[in-house]
Write a structure and sequence with these properties.
Chain lengths: 229, 311
């Protein structure tokens, strides 16, 4: 689903965020992207979401070579991707329903279908009944869950999350992780960037550790990655 | 196929309704923008109304213009009547009055002190005259000239006199007013586009976070732009309506005074305000200019947020 092949990313100010990074995440896999702040986790996610393009190397997402994708096809590409942010990025002046429905509205889905899917997504995150509420009326945990509902409402094959539990306490964090695992169980590929090492270790799932823009050789790596290298 | 049409409809309907709601919620800001643009549109409309009224006024004074067609002496009355009938049939001619030699003499005799002098003359020296009045639309110098040469071409016609100075002056003024109108309309249209463009630009800047999220979930440029384009169109329509109302009110206020002025000149003159057709044109122009301003502003700003390679 995701393949980084010697990807480098250098910014105009000279900073090299990624350096010859190579790894692979298979379809239906759930993996964590770990590392200290500045190691390159956010950059990896930005490249996957095509917010930026690699300076060098090849990044393939869901079979598509991102370097070859023309700008006008990017919106369509992004519709196959669910993104969860640390700061939820909800539209505060709109009700929850409108927020969750956004990915469907941009995809021209019919109103009836939007209604059905939004309710289904809210149900999955346990917020059915809050459609009319405005994000300001919700707790942090609920806001984060709305963000997750928005990310999965269009049933994307790939879900990426940037520090989704950053603002949550341990109990809520565990709840959110539970949600991600449920999505993974139905076949969604999930990649979560986090520096909550405890959470990662507890999950027992694969960990891709970054250090200074490339893979940290000292982290517990599964044989699959060594093979890509 | 109807599915796609339906989709197009819901897409645009959704954008239109949500934009209208947004504008309605920020009443003061919307009102100020609409007022600014409407003033820009009101001026060309007012000039247009003035020009129309001048033209109408000129039309009623067209009676003053006439061609005097002098026939050669010795032309028979029968022939003169035939020529008068021909002239009447010409395009652009409102009326033709034949003054035969005898009638001319009788009129002259009425003038004091002339009667006895005329008795001395053996023959009637006066020729027959056709007084040709053009209709309002032919009272332009070019048509008058054409009419004059046509009439002069008749074998029995001796000469044709035409007081065209008045027509020339009037039309020069009208032409000047019309050109002034075009230039000012172009300038003010550009002004309206600038005001709308700037307003939309500020709107986009203030809704940056929303636009970013929409982009991230896969909203295309067209999708993001649509509500702003509709905002531009709505501003333009609103401004057109307000501009028309402003000029209509001004016209109503001035109509009274204009009538008194006309009466002082001995004419009856009613000032026309802007017409329903003017309203239609203004709404159309407003919508088009609004769309244009929004498209320019949105195009520039939204293009900046595409992924870059940073090589």
């Amino acid at each position: 689903m995701i393949r980084f092949e010697r990807v480098s990313k250098r910014y105009p100010n000279g900073r090299e965020a990624l350096s010859q990074l190579s790894f692979e995440v298979a379809n239906g896999e759930m993996a964590f992207l770990t590392g200290r702040s500045g190691a390159g986790k956010s950059t990896v996610l930005k490249l996957i979401a095509l917010l930026e393009r690699p300076t060098r190397g090849v990044l393939t997402v869901n079979g598509i070579n991102t370097a070859k994708l023309p700008a006008r096809r990017i919106p369509l590409f992004r519709r196959g991707l669910g993104v969860v942010f640390q700061d939820h990025r909800l539209l505060m002046d709109r009700p929850v329903f409108d927020n969750v429905a956004l990915p469907l509205i941009v995809a021209d889905v019919s109103f009836r279908e939007i209604d059905r899917r939004v309710r289904a997504a809210l149900d999955q995150v346990g917020l059915l009944g809050k459609e009319r509420s405005v994000p300001l009326e919700l707790s942090i945990g609920e806001q984060q869950r709305v963000g997750i509902a928005r990310a999965v409402v269009s049933k994307p094959p790939l879900l990426i999350a940037d520090e989704p539990t950053g603002n949550l306490d341990a109990a809520l964090a565990a709840e959110v992780m539970g949600l991600f695992r449920r999505f993974n169980e139905v076949g969604v590929t999930v990649m979560i960037a986090t520096h909550d090492v405890h959470l990662v270790r507890e999950s027992g799932l694969r960990e891709i550790t970054l250090a200074s823009g490339s893979l940290d050789a000292s982290s517990p790596v599964l044989p699959a990655i060594a093979a890509v290298r | 196929m109807t599915g796609r049409l339906f989709n197009w409809g819901t897409r645009h309907g959704h954008a239109l309704v949500s934009t209208a709601g947004h504008l309605a919620r920020h009443r003061i800001a919307t009102a100020l923008t609409v007022l600014a643009i409407s003033l820009a549109l009101a001026l060309p409309l007012a000039l247009n109304v003035v020009v129309d009224n001048i033209r109408a006024a000129g039309g009623s004074f067209a009676d003053a213009i006439g061609l005097s067609v002098y026939l050669k002496p010795g032309t028979s009355e029968q022939r003169a009547r035939a020529l008068a009938a021909d002239a009447r049939a010409r395009a652009g001619v409102a009326s033709v009055t034949l003054i035969t030699a005898a009638q001319g003499l009788a009129q002259l005799r009425k003038q004091a002190g002339v009667g006895t002098a005329l008795d001395i003359l053996p023959d009637n020296p006066l020729p027959a005259v056709l007084e040709v009045r053009p209709n309002a639309s032919s009272a332009v110098p070019s048509r008058l000239d054409a009419l004059r040469s046509q009439l002069a071409a008749e074998p029995e016609v001796d000469s044709v006199q035409l007081d065209r100075d008045w027509a020339v002056r009037f039309h020069a003024i009208l032409e000047l007013a019309r050109r002034g109108l075009l230039i000012s309309a172009a300038l003010l249209a550009a002004g309206a586009v600038a005001v709308i463009g700037n307003t939309i630009r500020l709107e986009i800047a203030s809704r940056g976070a929303e636009i970013e999220v929409t982009r991230l979930v896969g909203g295309s440029n067209a999708f993001v732009r649509r509500p702003f384009l509709y905002a531009g169109v709505l501003y333009g329509l609103g401004a057109g309506l307000v501009a028309w109302a402003i000029v209509a009110m001004a016209g109503a206020i001035l109509a009274d005074q204009a009538q008194r002025l006309a009466a002082a000149y001995g004419g009856a003159f009613a000032l026309h305000g802007p017409s329903a057709r003017d309203l239609g044109m203004l709404l159309g122009a407003g919508a088009a200019l609004g769309w244009l301003g929004a498209a320019i502003a949105a195009g520039r700003q939204l293009a900046r947020t595409l992924p870059r390679r940073h090589v």
